[in-house]
Amino acid sequence: MSETALARMRPEKRAELIAAAAREFASRTYEEASLNRIIGSCGLSKSSFYHVVDSKEGLFSLVVSELSAAADRTWTAPEPASFADHFWDRADSVWQEALTTWPNSLELTQLWHIVYANPDNEAVLTLADRVRTWVRDVLITGRETGAVDRTCPLDLQSLAVFSLLRTFDEWALTAAGDDSPDEAAAHQFRLLKRLLHP
To answer: Where in the chain is the domain with CATH 1.10.357.10?
Structure first.
């Protein structure tokens, strides 16, 4: 991808390209997403597009990066050390905050769909590593304070929590059932607490 050409692109045209690509990647898997639909929906010619972005993979990475930056501006995960006092109260507060913020942000919702649909993509794996590291650091804080089970190996515990969070995403996106979003969130948090509580 030509960072120079991308930087020289008119800001409104760049925003149109990112928005069109985000819609396409959020509604289809990477393989199913069409560059022609993206290019056509934002009114670029193919030559103009390829002058700025050299590949579908480059565009996908750009979209994940832009949506991640928007996600950080909308909701920032708290520092793991902030869980040291009253771990489970803090965890519940952060859980509720995330649940009220994410559904109201187009960028966060698109990122959520993109990550779920493309778990093996390099850009998504990089983002997942950030989340995995944060989860591990929060667990370390919980273990140090005695709020989280310390008999389970940390690596296994981190993997279990990350996998459970992915399962929650899948359930919320595909099969949340008859529960209201608040009831679904309460079930999820209760399961998470049962998994980790000493």
So the answer is: 3-69
Closest by Cα among 59, 30, 26 to 118: 30
Q: Using an 8 Å Cβ cutoff, are 167 and 187 in contact? A: no
Q: Is 9 helix (H, G, I), strand (E, B) or coil?
A: coil
**pLDDT, tens digit only, all 198 positions of the chain:** 545 556 667 888 888 888 999 999 988 888 999 999 998 888 888 888 887 888 888 889 889 988 888 888 888 889 999 999 999 999 999 998 888 887 778 888 888 888 888 888 888 899 889 999 999 999 999 999 999 999 999 999 999 999 998 888 777 777 655 667 778 888 889 999 999 999
Nearest to 185 by CA among 101, 70, 111: 101
Between CA 49 and CA 127, with CA 120 as vertex, the angle to 5 degrees is 75
Determine if residue 177 is left, alpha or beta; phi over 0 gives left, psi from -120 to 50 gives alpha, anything else beta: left
CATH number listed for the domain at residues 3-69? 1.10.357.10
Task: Report which of 168, 163, 164 is spatially closest to residue 179, judged by C-alpha positions.
Answer: 168
Residue 143: C-alpha distances to residues 37, 79, 88, 179, 185 (Å): 49, 15, 12, 32, 24
What crossing angle do the helices spanning 154-174 and 106-117 adopt, rounded to 10°?
Answer: 110
Q: How far apart are CA 99 and CA 106, in angstroms?
A: 14
